[in-house]
Design a protein that fits this description.
The complex is a heterodimer of chains A (378) and B (362). Chain A folds into two domains: 112 residues, Response regulator (Rossmann fold), CATH 3.40.50; 157 residues, Response regulator (Rossmann fold, 3-Layer(aba) Sandwich), CATH 3.40.50. In chain A, the strands form three sheets. A seven-stranded mixed sheet of chain A has the order 1-3-2-4-5-6-14, with helices on both faces. Chain A has ten helices and 15 strands. In chain A, helix 2 runs parallel beside helix 9, helix 3 runs parallel beside helix 4 and helix 5 packs parallel to helix 6. By secondary structure, chain A is an alpha/beta fold. In chain A, 42% of the residues lie in helices and 20% in strands. In chain A, a hairpin with a 2-residue loop joins strand 11 and strand 12. Chain B has a domain of 252 residues: ABC transporter involved in vitamin B12 uptake, BtuC (Orthogonal Bundle). In chain B, helix 3 packs across helix 13, helix 5 runs antiparallel to helix 6 and helix 12 crosses helix 13. Classes of the chains: A alpha/beta (378), B mainly alpha (362). Chain B: It is a multi-pass membrane protein. Chain B: This is ABC transporter permease. Chain B: Keywords: Cell membrane, Membrane, Transmembrane, Transmembrane helix.
Chain lengths: 378, 362
């Protein structure tokens, strides 16, 4: 018993040492604030942050090259440009209880604006908008409703935001077809959920549009349209991509988060070995993720939905007192909420001209992209 | 007593390790831990959330601990939990009857589902000596993909493709009485079931012939066989009970803390159960306490993130460090043995065996 006591004393001493160390380190590091989940808005010209904007992440990490990252980038920009303090929390699981817990944590810590990405938050936001009346909520890709009743009820302190992924996929499809002229295209999706499906359907329509109107010959086969089933299994993404390339596919559209990262890596390996292997990125501009040599990248272009703009805009609106509470907003091609990057080093001038023509037609309503499956593959 | 000291040391070292990590990344460990514990205990709602977070861990911890006692390393608690929870959800969504009967049916379904999932590795171990570590991990993935297929095909929600329909309130363990008592927390009757399970398992292990036989197999399979214990049957029985416990954990998670089952997720409670069992020294009471401790960590983490500049990833690492130390309590055991022996050697050879081993160590 005595011995164990002495052991405990030793432990205490170590703990005390650790505490001393912290004070020194604390002084050095807090200024930089780098690599931290928190941005202190006060850095911006000594202005006091007007309010605190928090985010709760969906399943997956903050650097998922997709949803979480996009939302967070918007908040980071708000910190830089608007002097708003921002922070994200990562829930332990993906149940409503987990989400509610983190939203409550943010609220208790004084975050009166809470941005959440993903339809999984729908029921949690429904409960929160009534529970925390003086907080504002932004729900991206979903609309609040109860578990029993899918009719959306957007509270006056909530904005729900949707994207027209099919239009984004359509433009990527047109760009791909015009650039490559002929060959075969494939699609790797994450989970078979509406945003991913809409990318897929839009892409197929884009390819078809180019084949019909712009004289290209790009084919898509049934076996080359695959939903992997997760957003994080990058090994499986690499395998799927390898199989497709081996079957003669030239270009793969990945709408699959981390699975897409695996596909990009496979494409990079092939490109390094001198073979042609193209990838079309998703959500953000993934050009940099596909760089394999110098500044050459396997990313032909990316089908973007500007999640970062959406979250930034909402913070800005709240700061200016114009928060569109109670509304459901759709970001589509008409308000430039979706599209392909403005700079595409792998696309020729000619391709960009044709894509811009397609954009004009979409905006004017001459060409319409269906958000339904119809007779498309999967 | 010794086990208690080992576990406490493990927790302490873990906390120190986490504190060092906080210090190295430029945060104040005392402040961090203050908010971590406040987040789990500050008010009745947070306390309730902590208990609820710990509930599934009690089941999986108990499951792993029970198999350990028979010398089996059940890594498949995640899969058994998933399948048990799935079976309970199937009953909950399709049967319409009075609440007590319905809940009883769901509990039985969860028990059976988990037991079936553990029976296969148990049988393989008993008949063909297939190592249970390998087969239970494989069963995890079979469960994962079975759910992945079955939920969208048969239990799909109307709007959402990746989860089942929500269980009606009467088919969940939710209790307004408990929630109100804990200020709107999501604590539920799963905790009652967990406590009952702890008592039953403690009784089986300590007071019954079955428990004695299983422990004997755990200590030494061959001598148990020599003593006339049917080893193969014991292995299968142990796996059945272990799996049933994990299955019940699935019900506590999917029909208690949550109200539906999601695809594409292997519940983390399965693997955490191993750490819970190790920290609880494989005793039912120890498991109960350590599961609640883990619940506290998971529950308080978010508040720590919100109140300090510690990023969520560091918070995850801190918890991982604590788990790591908890899981290496065997090392702690060795360390204590060595210190004790050295002390004996130093006090001048009072015992007969002490000095000898002391010299060897020196």
């Amino acid at each position: 018993m005595k011995k164990s006591l002495s052991l405990l004393v030793i432990c205490m001493l170590v703990l005390a040492l650790a505490a001393c160390g912290s004070k020194n380190n604390g002084g050095n590091n807090t200024d930089t604030g780098s690599n931290s989940g928190t941005n202190n808005g006060a850095n911006n010209g000594g202005e006091k942050p007007s309010f605190k904007a928090g985010m709760v992440t969906d399943s997956g990490t903050i650097d998922d090259k997709s949803f979480n990252q996009g939302t967070w980038e918007g908040l980071e920009r708000a910190t830089k440009e608007l002097g708003v303090a921002s922070k994200y929390l990562k829930p332990a699981g993906t149940t409503e209880a987990d989400y509610m817990k983190e939203i409550g944590n943010l609220y208790d810590a004084g975050y009166k604006m809470i941005v959440v990405p993903g339809f999984k938050f729908e029921t949690a936001i429904y409960a929160s908008q009534d529970k925390y009346k003086d907080a504002n909520f932004v729900l991206i890709d979903g609309s609040p409703h109860t578990a029993e009743d899918p009719t959306p009820k957007v509270g006056t302190n909530t904005v729900s935001i949707f994207f027209a992924e099919h239009e984004s996929g359509f433009l990527a499809g047109v760009a791909t077809a015009v650039q490559l002229k002929e060959g075969e295209a494939g699609f790797i999706g994450g989970m078979e959920i509406p945003p991913v499906q809409k990318y897929n359907w839009g892409f197929q329509q884009g390819v078809k549009y180019a084949n019909d109107n712009l004289g290209t010959k790009i084919s898509m086969k049934k076996e080359n349209v695959v939903y992997q089933g997760s957003f994080d299994n990058s090994a499986a993404g690499g395998q799927l991509a390898a199989q497709m390339y081996d079957r003669g596919v030239n270009v793969i559209f990945t709408a699959a988060g981390g699975v897409g990262v695996g596909a990009i890596n496979e494409a990079k390996n092939r490109a390094k070995a001198g073979k042609t292997a193209w990838i079309i990125g998703v959500d953000g501009d993934q050009y940099k993720d596909g760089v394999y040599e110098g500044d050459k990248s396997v990313i032909l272009t990316s089908a973007m939905k500007k999640v970062n703009e959406a979250s930034f805009d909402m913070v800005k609106a709240l700061q200016e007192g114009k928060f569109p509470g109670g509304q459901t907003l759709t970001f589509d091609i008409k308000n430039d909420g979706v599209g392909i990057p403005s700079e595409n080093p792998n696309l020729t001038e000619d391709t960009m001209t044709k894509v811009n023509e397609a954009i004009t037609k979409l905006k004017s309503g001459d060409v319409k992209v269906a958000a339904e499956k119809g007779d498309l593959i999967k | 007593m010794r086990n208690l000291i080992i576990s406490l040391c493990a927790v302490l070292f873990g906390l120190i390790g986490g504190g060092v990590l906080m210090a190295v990344t430029g945060h104040d460990p005392f402040e961090g831990y203050k908010f971590l514990f406040q987040g789990g205990l500050k008010n009745s709602q947070r306390l309730g959330d902590t208990l609820a977070t710990g509930t599934p861990l009690i089941f999986t911890g108990l499951s792993v601990a029970f198999a350990f006692r028979t010398g089996l390393f059940n890594i498949g608690a995640a899969g058994q939990m998933l399948f048990g929870g799935f079976c309970a959800t199937v009953i909950g969504l399709n049967v319409d009857t009075s609440r007590p009967l319905l809940l009883l049916m769901m509990i039985v379904a969860a028990l059976l589902g988990g037991a079936v999932w553990a029976f296969i590795p148990g049988l393989l171990k008993a008949r063909f000596n297939v190592h249970e570590v390998v087969s239970t991990i494989m069963m995890n993935w079979i469960a994962y993909w079975t759910i992945y297929y079955a939920v969208p095909a048969y239990l799909k929600a109307e709007s959402v493709e990746t989860e089942s329909r929500l269980l009606p309130d009467k088919a969940t363990l939710k209790s307004t009485f408990l929630s109100d008592m804990f200020g709107g927390s999501y604590i539920n009757m799963g905790l009652y079931v967990a406590v009952i399970a702890v008592i039953i398992i403690a009784f089986i292990i300590n007071k019954t012939t079955l428990g004695y036989e299983l422990k004997a197999v755990g200590y030494n399979r061959h001598s148990a066989e020599y003593a006339g214990i049917k080893v193969n049957r014991s292995i299968i029985t142990s796996m059945l009970i272990s799996g049933a416990l994990a299955g019940l954990g699935g019900m506590a998670q999917f029909a208690g803390n949550g109200a539906n089952i999601q695809i594409g997720v292997l519940p983390t409670q399965g693997y955490d159960g191993i750490a819970v069992a190790l920290l609880g020294a494989n005793s039912p009471l120890g498991v109960l306490i350590s599961a609640l401790f883990f619940g506290l960590l998971y529950s308080g983490r978010g508040f720590m993130n919100a109140m300090t500049d510690i990023p969520p990833e560091i918070a995850d690492s801190i918890i991982a460090i604590i788990i790591y130390f908890a899981a290496t309590s065997v090392l702690m055991d060795r360390l204590i043995t060595r210190i004790v022996n050295r002390r004996r050697a130093a006090t001048g050879g009072a015992g007969t065996s002490g000095p000898v081993s002391g010299k060897e160590n020196a």
